Amino acid sequence: MAMPPGTVFAGFRIERTLGSGGMGTVYLARHPRLPRSVALKVLDAAAGADPEFRARFAREADIAVRLDHPHVVEIYDRGAEDERLWISMRYVAGPDAARLIREHGRLPARRAVGLVAQAAAGLDAAHRRGLLHRDVKPANLLVAADDDGGDHVFVADFGIARSRDDAVRLTGAGALPATLGYVAPEQIDGREPDHRSDLYSLGVTLYQMLTGALPFTGTTPAELLRAHLLEPPPPVTRRAPDLPRALDDVLATALAKDPAERYPDCRALAVAAAAALADHPPGPEAAGPEQNSARADRPHQPSPHRAGPARHAPAAARATVRPLPDGSSAAAPDNHRTAHPPGRPAAVWWGAGVAVAGVLAVALVLAFGRTATTVPGSAVAGPTTSPPPVTSGIATTTVATNPAWGRTGELAALLPGLIPDTPAATGYQGARCTPLDVLDNGRAPALECVQDNGIHFYAWSFRPGDPRRDETFRTAVADDTTREEVWQRDSGTGRVRWTHYAGGDTGLLTVTFDDPARAWIVLDVSWDHHTGRDLYDHWWATAPL
């Protein structure tokens, strides 16, 4: 039985159910201390009652956490609560490739190859570390938006990954972990699987993206397995005549029955598929990641909680298959950190374009100019009669910076008095600050600061459209201690929210800004053994913002 929203499990606050399967349920959950939501997989109690399974689960989680790659979902932690095993991982706000196929039937060829190329990069990275996924399929390819609104793929569910050396022992006799439509022949007939088994499954995935159908079917599981073992894959062009015939050869190689006849690695498959499309005219362009998702967390219409503009790359940019770099360390395009100069913080990356700035100005009025809201128990927020003014400064391309802080220089310059002038100096209430380069905000510029009185705060910047900006502002708890109000000072306006996390006896406070230069900054403040009201009185009241 799924846990309802608001349940606290292993310190995580359940926000909603993301999905469920035969062995457990995945929830969107709020981390009790850090400013992020996570995907929390909780296994059924029956699984946790088996000592052998518990040992295998712990082993597999430890294997998965070794992966650190931009195209693999990051594993954060694992544990057990009331005999139920759990694992927390990065939450990816976007659809999976299976959903895109269901919604569109088939994907434009260049988009399909681009998705597979990124997945190939993550899989090859795992294979170089001796890890197999063993369940590659569209449902395990999560599609988020990169800096420019293009696709960014994360390979998910490495919680069932096996070390090549431990494959037989971990899997157990008779177990067949892969979904039958994507399973490699050697996983069926008892041969030892290796990285080429994942390549086969990735080839099936590409075939389905290109045609909207699986290459092998059957009315019973036995018929389907027999097809994998004995039947050649139908040519792609038989089901999609508009595609180049060169793709038939690419898929035939990827889906060869003998692993030795397949490509040597996943990157080689992606390179061959891209080459097959080199002279193929672009077809009708599919929607970008934001348009393809009908999920509540990525709505078609602008959400009142999203202050950024909709991000859609130009059609030509989305349709182009980017060249795959040579070398084993980078197997697919990784443009999510190259679209902007590394020294420019996310809070102002969008400021270079007048048109984009104008859209953002309207979005800010809609998102933050509404009536002040309260949460249960709130007694401090009052109505706002008009939206805060939006100035024309967003059109400027001149941005102040503090060179002493390097790539976080512009972020530091936007918070004078709060952040010290140099890393060696102290800021507000003796704060000593350190730059961060973490996944919590997509590796956009960030600062972590610790004050002499024990108050700890982060200054996060987020790229426009990143839903983690709003998730961070909501804080980890919403109960009768939570308050939220509009603030107004000489420097501008915004919102402040504070609460008390009883589980850790910690006061929490978050701040957002309305002015365009700082609209994508969130301050996240905590104080152990104090309340949110303590933070409001002793930190927020005099904070130099």
From TrEMBL:
Disordered, as annotated region: 279-342
GO molecular function: ATP binding; protein serine/threonine kinase activity
TM region(s), chain numbering: 347-368
UniProt keyword list: ATP-binding, Kinase, Membrane, Nucleotide-binding, Serine/threonine-protein kinase, Transferase, Transmembrane, Transmembrane helix
Residues annotated for ATP binding in this entry: K41
Keyword Oxidoreductase appears in the UniProt entry: no
Protein kinase domain segment(s): 12-283
UniProt keyword ATP-binding, yes or no: yes
Ranges annotated as biased composition (Low complexity): 304-319
EC number in record: 2.7.11.1
Source taxon at top rank: Bacteria
Protein name: non-specific serine/threonine protein kinase
InterPro entries assigned: Kinase-like_dom_sf, Prot_kinase_dom, Protein_kinase_ATP_BS, Ser/Thr_kinase_AS
